Amino acid sequence: MKRYILASTLILLAPAAFACETVSVADITIRNAWSKATIGASRPASFYVEITNNGGTDDALIGIATPAADKPMLHQTVVKDGIASMPHAMSIAVPAGQTMELAPGGYHGMLMDLTAALAEGDRFPVTLTFEKTGEATINVDVLSMRAEGPECSNADQ
Amino acid sequence: MRLDRLRFALWMAVILATIAFTVLQLRADKPPPEMNAASSFAPTFRLADGDGRIRESAEFRGHWLLVFFGFTNCPDVCPTTLSEVAQVMDDLGQEGQQVQPVFISIDPERDRAASMDDYTRAFHSTILGLAGDAAQTRAAAESFRIFYEREPDASAPDAYTMSHSAGLFLVGPDGQWVKQYGYGTPAAEILSDLQSRI
């Protein structure tokens, strides 16, 4: 019985097993990094994250790098008059004192030329480069293809 | 006296803001230009499924069609919409048998090579993936009165990407166009609208 209770507790706690890391470098804090599982490695994957600038100076995200993909880039989904397009974003502003989200339907990382398919439960590092703060690396949780947002039980949203 | 004037100015600001907000709301609710056609129309398609079999709109009479145009290399908009469709199909339960979700590729050459079925089934087993040839695809898009375009993009895979109408389109059991759910319409909203019609 005890073992049963322990097992059920572990199952209930399973979502908390995601890395759900919070990484801080100087005034920049990044958290809730996630991606979606892919079918094979030929189609691009996405990368989403939340960035907070706790400082008094504006900063900007200017690039991403990861061993999971040869061509990671920043893009923005723009839906205008019902037409969706996805221009390349050279830089994403992270103004002083504000939180910027890379989320479905907005700014996102597009991971092209994946080195391997992403499976649910996988974890891979992404290094974000900021104009002023420099580099910060966070582990990204791969969620199901149908995930709509980060699945961090301890996420302070 | 000065306080009265300030109060007056503030109230004016409130009124102006309310008017501006209302106008913006009304404009946001307005459907895109291609939907303004008052008369109803019957969108059609004739496209190959994953097995290479030609599927036609006419064979789905009696069913509600939930149609989305997209491409499988699309990392953000298309998975988001297909996830919503999958959620709607899960939540419809038995009533889902009267609804056929269809994903029509606007990038058919690349999508046929990469297997549409693996992609659509990863979201939901009921989603039918169709990818015709260039002329069939153009004809289907025109009959739905939607837009798509290939855009050169050096940063994208194979150096191009697609821009496309991102709505989800509902066709009735009689084959007539019913409505568009705009991009980002929550699954719960689509679900309750469908339930009220079925």
Tally of contiguous helical segments of chain B: 6
What assembly state would you assign to the polypeptide chains in this entry? heterodimer
- What is the string of helix and strand elements of chain B? HEEEHEHHEHEEEEH
Structural class of chain A: mainly beta
- In percent terms, what proportion of residues of chain A is strand? over 45%
What strand order characterises the main sheet of chain B?
Answer: 5-4-3-8-9
Taking all Cα atoms into account, the compactness measure Rg of chain A is 17 Å
Helix content, binned percent of chain B: 25-40%
Instruction: Give me the count of strands of chain A.
Output: 12
Question: What general outline of chain B do the C-alpha atoms trace?
Answer: globular
| Tally of helical segments of chain A | 1
Structural class of chain B: alpha/beta
Q: Which series of helices and strands of chain A comes N to C?
A: HEEEEEEEEEEEE
What is the number of strand segments of chain B? Answer: 9
> What is the residue-mean pLDDT of chain B, rounded to a whole number?
88
Can you describe this structure?
The complex is a heterodimer of chains A (157) and B (198). Chain A is mainly β and 157 residues long. Chain A contains one helix and twelve strands, in the order H-E-E-E-E-E-E-E-E-E-E-E-E. In chain A, the strands form two sheets. In chain A, strands 1, 2, 3, 4, 5, 8, 9, 10, 11 and 12 form a ten-stranded mixed β-sheet that branches. In chain A, strands 6-7 form a two-stranded antiparallel ribbon. Chain B is an alpha/beta fold and 198 residues long. Chain B is built from six helices and nine strands; from the N terminus they run H-E-E-E-H-E-H-H-E-H-E-E-E-E-H. Chain B is globular. Chain B starts with a helix and ends with a helix. Chains A and B meet through strand 5, strand 7 and strand 10 of A and helix 2, helix 4 and strand 7 of B. Strand 7 of chain A pairs antiparallel with strand 7 of chain B.
